Amino acid sequence: MRRERGSGLITYPIGVSGETIVLTDQIVDHFKKHRQHRPWRREAGGQLFAHFRAGEILVKEATGPRPTDRRGRAYYKPDRRAERREILDRFKSGLHYVGDWHTHPSELPEPSWTDVRNINECFAKSHHELNGFILVIVGTAPAPCGLRVSIHDGVSDFVLKSHEDSVGSAEVQPPRVGLLRR
Q1: Which residues contact 44 (CB under 8 A, 6 or more apart)?
Q2: Domain at 79, CATH number
Q3: Residue 168 reports pLDDT greater than 50
Q4: In this structure, what DSSP letter does residue 180 have?
Q5: 0.70 exceeded by the pTM?
Protein backbone atom coordinates (compact mmCIF):
# COMPACT_ATOMS: atom_id res chain seq x y z
CA MET A 1 0.00 0.00 0.00
CA ARG A 2 1.27 3.48 -0.81
CA ARG A 3 2.08 5.99 1.87
CA GLU A 4 0.08 9.17 2.40
CA ARG A 5 1.10 12.08 0.22
CA GLY A 6 3.04 14.67 2.16
CA SER A 7 3.17 17.64 -0.16
CA GLY A 8 2.02 18.72 -3.54
CA LEU A 9 -1.25 18.21 -5.30
CA ILE A 10 -3.30 15.20 -6.33
CA THR A 11 -4.52 15.65 -9.88
CA TYR A 12 -7.24 13.82 -11.78
CA PRO A 13 -7.28 14.22 -15.57
CA ILE A 14 -10.78 14.25 -17.05
CA GLY A 15 -10.81 12.09 -20.14
CA VAL A 16 -10.25 13.77 -23.47
CA SER A 17 -11.33 17.23 -22.31
CA GLY A 18 -7.85 18.32 -21.24
CA GLU A 19 -9.30 19.45 -17.90
CA THR A 20 -7.86 18.41 -14.55
CA ILE A 21 -9.37 18.29 -11.07
CA VAL A 22 -6.79 19.39 -8.53
CA LEU A 23 -7.02 18.49 -4.83
CA THR A 24 -4.68 20.54 -2.66
CA ASP A 25 -2.99 19.21 0.47
CA GLN A 26 -5.48 21.29 2.49
CA ILE A 27 -8.37 19.33 0.96
CA VAL A 28 -6.65 15.94 1.35
CA ASP A 29 -5.80 16.80 4.98
CA HIS A 30 -9.48 17.63 5.61
CA PHE A 31 -10.48 14.23 4.22
CA LYS A 32 -7.76 12.47 6.24
CA LYS A 33 -8.98 14.07 9.46
CA HIS A 34 -12.42 12.48 9.02
CA ARG A 35 -11.48 8.96 7.81
CA GLN A 36 -13.30 6.18 9.68
CA HIS A 37 -10.34 4.30 11.17
CA ARG A 38 -12.16 3.19 14.30
CA PRO A 39 -15.47 1.35 14.70
CA TRP A 40 -17.02 4.29 16.57
CA ARG A 41 -16.15 6.86 13.87
CA ARG A 42 -19.25 8.10 12.07
CA GLU A 43 -19.47 8.97 8.39
CA ALA A 44 -18.63 12.59 7.67
CA GLY A 45 -19.12 14.69 4.58
CA GLY A 46 -19.66 18.05 3.03
CA GLN A 47 -19.40 20.05 -0.16
CA LEU A 48 -16.55 20.89 -2.54
CA PHE A 49 -15.86 24.40 -3.83
CA ALA A 50 -13.44 25.36 -6.59
CA HIS A 51 -11.91 28.07 -8.74
CA PHE A 52 -11.72 27.50 -12.48
CA ARG A 53 -8.61 28.48 -14.42
CA ALA A 54 -7.32 27.38 -17.81
CA GLY A 55 -8.83 23.89 -17.77
CA GLU A 56 -8.14 23.35 -14.07
CA ILE A 57 -10.80 22.75 -11.46
CA LEU A 58 -8.83 23.77 -8.37
CA VAL A 59 -10.74 22.48 -5.35
CA LYS A 60 -10.03 25.11 -2.70
CA GLU A 61 -12.48 24.24 0.08
CA ALA A 62 -14.19 21.19 1.53
CA THR A 63 -16.93 21.99 4.04
CA GLY A 64 -18.40 19.78 6.74
CA PRO A 65 -19.20 17.87 8.65
CA ARG A 66 -21.67 20.21 10.32
CA PRO A 67 -23.20 19.77 13.80
CA THR A 68 -26.63 19.70 12.15
CA ASP A 69 -25.83 16.78 9.78
CA ARG A 70 -27.24 13.36 10.67
CA ARG A 71 -24.42 10.83 10.89
CA GLY A 72 -23.88 7.20 11.80
CA ARG A 73 -21.36 4.46 11.13
CA ALA A 74 -22.87 3.70 7.71
CA TYR A 75 -24.87 6.80 6.78
CA TYR A 76 -24.47 10.51 6.26
CA LYS A 77 -27.41 12.88 5.72
CA PRO A 78 -26.33 16.49 5.26
CA ASP A 79 -28.23 19.52 6.51
CA ARG A 80 -29.58 20.72 3.13
CA ARG A 81 -30.47 24.19 4.43
CA ALA A 82 -26.88 24.69 5.65
CA GLU A 83 -25.60 23.44 2.29
CA ARG A 84 -27.63 26.04 0.39
CA ARG A 85 -26.21 28.78 2.65
CA GLU A 86 -22.66 27.49 2.03
CA ILE A 87 -23.19 27.60 -1.73
CA LEU A 88 -24.47 31.19 -1.67
CA ASP A 89 -21.75 32.38 0.72
CA ARG A 90 -18.89 30.75 -1.23
CA PHE A 91 -20.24 32.01 -4.55
CA LYS A 92 -20.07 35.61 -3.24
CA SER A 93 -16.34 35.06 -2.64
CA GLY A 94 -15.73 33.58 -6.11
CA LEU A 95 -15.89 29.87 -5.29
CA HIS A 96 -18.17 27.53 -7.24
CA TYR A 97 -19.92 24.46 -5.87
CA VAL A 98 -18.58 21.46 -7.81
CA GLY A 99 -19.75 18.45 -5.81
CA ASP A 100 -19.81 16.51 -2.56
CA TRP A 101 -17.56 14.34 -0.45
CA HIS A 102 -18.16 11.85 2.35
CA THR A 103 -16.44 8.98 4.11
CA HIS A 104 -17.02 5.23 4.05
CA PRO A 105 -15.65 2.76 6.63
CA SER A 106 -13.85 0.69 3.98
CA GLU A 107 -10.30 0.81 2.73
CA LEU A 108 -11.17 1.28 -0.95
CA PRO A 109 -14.64 2.83 -1.02
CA GLU A 110 -17.37 2.33 -3.59
CA PRO A 111 -20.52 4.44 -3.80
CA SER A 112 -23.80 3.02 -2.63
CA TRP A 113 -26.88 3.16 -4.81
CA THR A 114 -28.07 6.03 -2.55
CA ASP A 115 -24.80 7.95 -3.08
CA VAL A 116 -25.14 7.78 -6.85
CA ARG A 117 -28.85 8.64 -6.78
CA ASN A 118 -28.24 11.65 -4.51
CA ILE A 119 -25.43 13.21 -6.57
CA ASN A 120 -27.33 12.63 -9.83
CA GLU A 121 -30.47 14.17 -8.33
CA CYS A 122 -28.43 17.12 -7.05
CA PHE A 123 -26.99 17.64 -10.53
CA ALA A 124 -30.41 17.47 -12.17
CA LYS A 125 -32.12 19.85 -9.73
CA SER A 126 -29.36 22.46 -9.40
CA HIS A 127 -28.90 25.65 -11.40
CA HIS A 128 -25.32 25.58 -12.69
CA GLU A 129 -23.08 25.80 -15.75
CA LEU A 130 -21.30 22.44 -15.33
CA ASN A 131 -21.42 19.19 -17.30
CA GLY A 132 -21.28 17.16 -14.09
CA PHE A 133 -20.67 17.19 -10.35
CA ILE A 134 -17.74 15.60 -8.54
CA LEU A 135 -18.28 12.93 -5.89
CA VAL A 136 -15.34 12.03 -3.64
CA ILE A 137 -15.73 9.07 -1.32
CA VAL A 138 -13.00 8.88 1.30
CA GLY A 139 -11.95 5.42 2.45
CA THR A 140 -9.56 4.39 5.19
CA ALA A 141 -6.58 3.80 2.86
CA PRO A 142 -4.14 6.68 2.38
CA ALA A 143 -4.71 9.13 -0.47
CA PRO A 144 -4.79 8.91 -3.40
CA CYS A 145 -5.69 5.18 -3.49
CA GLY A 146 -8.22 5.60 -0.64
CA LEU A 147 -10.12 8.28 -2.58
CA ARG A 148 -12.77 7.37 -5.12
CA VAL A 149 -13.23 10.40 -7.35
CA SER A 150 -15.97 10.41 -9.97
CA ILE A 151 -18.01 12.75 -12.13
CA HIS A 152 -21.79 12.42 -12.34
CA ASP A 153 -23.78 14.00 -15.15
CA GLY A 154 -27.25 13.08 -13.92
CA VAL A 155 -27.11 9.71 -15.69
CA SER A 156 -23.58 8.29 -15.73
CA ASP A 157 -20.82 7.76 -13.19
CA PHE A 158 -17.30 8.34 -14.58
CA VAL A 159 -14.54 7.15 -12.24
CA LEU A 160 -11.33 9.17 -12.41
CA LYS A 161 -7.81 8.03 -11.57
CA SER A 162 -5.15 10.35 -10.21
CA HIS A 163 -2.02 10.78 -12.30
CA GLU A 164 -0.17 8.74 -9.66
CA ASP A 165 -2.73 5.90 -9.64
CA SER A 166 -2.97 5.84 -13.45
CA VAL A 167 0.62 4.70 -13.94
CA GLY A 168 0.50 1.00 -14.82
CA SER A 169 -3.20 0.58 -13.95
CA ALA A 170 -6.05 -0.68 -16.08
CA GLU A 171 -7.79 1.96 -18.16
CA VAL A 172 -11.13 3.31 -16.87
CA GLN A 173 -13.88 4.64 -19.10
CA PRO A 174 -13.08 8.37 -19.52
CA PRO A 175 -15.87 10.94 -19.39
CA ARG A 176 -17.23 11.96 -22.78
CA VAL A 177 -16.92 15.63 -21.89
CA GLY A 178 -15.14 17.78 -19.34
CA LEU A 179 -16.63 19.23 -16.19
CA LEU A 180 -16.70 22.78 -17.54
CA ARG A 181 -19.11 23.83 -20.26
CA ARG A 182 -17.46 25.45 -23.24
Answers
A1: 34, 36, 64, 65, 69, 71, 76, 102, 103
A2: 3.40.140.10
A3: no
A4: B
A5: yes
